[in-house]
Design brief:
Order of helices and strands: HHHHEEEEHEEHH
Strand order of the largest sheet: 1-2
Number of strands: 6
Structural class: alpha+beta
Largest sheet: 2 strands, antiparallel
Helix content: 25-40%
Radius of gyration: 16 Å
Number of helices: 7
Shape: globular
Oligomer: single chain
Length: about 160
C-alpha cells in the first residue's frame, strides 16, 4: 500500500494544480471504504450510479509478464476514478486531463480518508518556492490493482447502461 500524505501549505499555494490536471484513481479496496459497503460489485455500482465517478482505462495489459499472445491478455484494463468537470454526463471518461469533479475553491470535497489512493499517495513538496508533488502511486499501479476485477466493472456497466 502506498504512503499516505495530507494536504499542506503547498496545496494551498498551488490551488490544486494536480487536481486541475487529472483526478486521482481509486483502488478496489477504496471503493468499499468510500461507499461503506462490503461488496466490491455493490461499491462499484454505487460509485458509477452516483454521477461523480467514471470508468477510465489503461491501454494494453498493465502486467509486464504477459504478452498479447497469452490467454487472458487485456487489451485495456478498466479502473474507476472521479469524473472530470468536462465529462459530467459521461460514464466513460478516458480523457488525458481535466479538473477533478471534487475540487472546490477551498480544496477537495472528499474527506482525506475517502480520497482515491492516487490522491492520498501524492506527496506535496515545495522546491524553490514552487509547489511540486511526487506521486507514489500511479495509473499503472491502479490498473494493476484492477486487473483481477474487470468482470465486476463489466457486469456493473452492463447493468447500468
Amino acid at each position: 500500500m502506498p504512503l499516505k500524505f495530507s494536504p499542506n501549505e503547498c496545496c494551498a499555494a498551488c490551488k490544486g494544480a494536480c487536481c486541475k490536471s487529472m483526478p486521482g484513481s481509486i483502488t478496489p479496496e477504496d471503493t468499499m471504504l468510500v461507499t461503506g459497503v462490503d461488496s466490491l460489485e455493490e461499491a462499484v455500482r454505487t460509485l458509477l450510479s452516483s454521477g461523480d465517478w467514471a470508468v477510465d482505462c489503461w491501454e494494453g495489459d498493465p502486467r509486464k509478464d504477459i504478452s498479447y499472445e497469452d490467454d487472458g491478455y487485456l487489451y485495456q484494463c478498466m479502473y474507476i476514478r472521479p469524473k472530470t468537470k468536462d465529462a459530467l454526463n459521461q460514464l466513460f471518461d478516458a480523457s488525458w486531463g481535466g479538473e477533478c469533479i471534487f475540487l472546490t475553491d477551498s480544496g477537495c470535497k472528499l474527506s482525506e480518508e475517502k480520497r482515491p489512493t492516487e490522491c492520498r499517495a501524492l506527496e506535496p513538496k515545495s522546491v524553490a518556492e514552487e509547489p511540486v508533488c511526487t506521486g507514489h502511486f500511479t495509473k499503472h499501479d491502479v490498473s494493476l490493482a484492477w486487473v483481477d476485477h474487470q468482470d465486476v466493472i463489466k457486469r456493473v456497466l452492463d447493468e447500468i447502461q
